[in-house]
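Thread: Redox-sensing transcriptional repressor Rex, structure

OP (GT): Posting the sequence first so everyone is looking at the same thing. Length is 286 residues per the record. Can we get the structure tokens written out before standup tomorrow? I want them in the notebook alongside the other entries.
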Amino acid sequence: MATGRTHRPATRSRGIPEATVARLPLYLRALTALSERSVPTVSSEELAAAAGVNSAKLRKDFSYLGSYGTRGVGYDVEYLVYQISRELGLTQDWPVVIVGIGNLGAALANYGGFASRGFRVAALIDADPAMAGKPVAGIAVQHTDELESIISDNGVSIGVIATPAGAAQQVCERLVAAGVTSILNFAPTVLSVPDGVDVRKVDLSIELQILAFHEQRKAGEEAAQDAAQAGATAPAPARASRVLPDAAATPATAGAATGAATAPVASADVRDNQGPDGDVPAVMPA
Ligand SMILES: NC(=O)c1ccc[n+]([C@@H]2O[C@H](COP(=O)([O-])OP(=O)(O)OC[C@H]3O[C@@H](n4cnc5c(N)ncnc54)[C@H](O)[C@@H]3O)[C@@H](O)[C@H]2O)c1
């Protein structure tokens, strides 16, 4: 993938930790909002609060970009927008194809946030012949028969998969064979790709499960506080048993929250995506 190695030291693009890269879009979003309000400079504390990150982490992250701010003044908003955009490769146009134009694919196609961040939806592709030629978000859907020529004609390197899980691996293989080297996968399945191909996976049901985990922990903490405030009169074993039933209810809570809020994601999908990670971002490596 073109990342401008000619004008940047290779060590910089390689030396940025993945966790920092994952936070750069958060900084960029906060900085873009400041830029739109014509705010010229921002302190690390203000920017960290706006991005939801701690300020020491932010300063460390920006040191990887070679950006240290000015003491007493802060960071130059416009310059930082440019620096982060360049680091993320957003100073160039990225044509993207979306494959699978059902509920989710159509919603993604209609999302204005891609274009405003440099991702141009070059084509919408679906296997259903009845969809061919139908406009979605102002773009005529094309049949999968044309997938290879669409990729090469538009120089597409990023593909979005929004097909049912069962079709995703085959779609992925066709995309990769046609020249796509980065895939954003919404289908609830793990994709196998050759070396050199990056896959990121989005799973909202996992996010809901993480929220459910925090909800039950908060409930547990509140119960423990109540028990502590109740004081010496209550016997210790009774207090302990008051917290435990909530914790035991966690799996059911997570399942219910997921099923209710993400109707398209079947319960089998949720099981497929449960992993050992304690804190999985909305977009994660596949
Ligand atoms: N990651 C998430 O948070 C999240 C949320 C919602 C849905 N999903 C997943 O996204 C996918 C799509 O969901 P949906 O509700 O839009 O489904 P949908 O049934 O509405 O749409 C799927 C589309 O894919 C097309 N399709 C099927 N096989 C294809 C193939 N081989 N090549 C190209 N197109 C093909 C179908 O014709 C259909 O238009 C599902 O896998 C679902 O589980 C993920």
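GT: Both are above now. Quick notes for whoever picks this up: The chain has three domains: 5-87, 94-202, 205-285. Confidence is low (pLDDT under 50) at residues 1-12, 237-282.
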